[in-house]
Amino acid sequence: MTATDFTEAIGEVIDDRGGERFSDGEVKILKAVFIKLKDKRFIEEPPST
Question: Which residues pair with 2 in a beta bridge?
Fold first, then answer.
């Protein structure tokens, strides 16, 4: 999974919620999940150029 894949998945969740935005608390949780997935290498870093 790439960071773009994660972002697109979150966009799909927003669509599923009828366009309802995430609360500040939900955003904090999503950021923490993203960081944890990245640390565990489930989210790939793009190659540096």
Answer: 44
Domain limits, the chain: 3-39
Measure Cα distances from 38 to 7, 17, 25, 47 in Å. Answer: 13, 25, 20, 14
Q: What is the pLDDT of residues 14-46, one digit of tens each?
A: 999 998 888 999 999 999 999 999 999 888 877
Q: Report CA 5 to chain centroid distance, whole Å.
A: 8
Task: Point out which residues pair with 8 in neighbouring strands.
Answer: none
Rounded to two decimals, the pTM is 0.71
Contact 21, 14 (CB under 8 A): yes
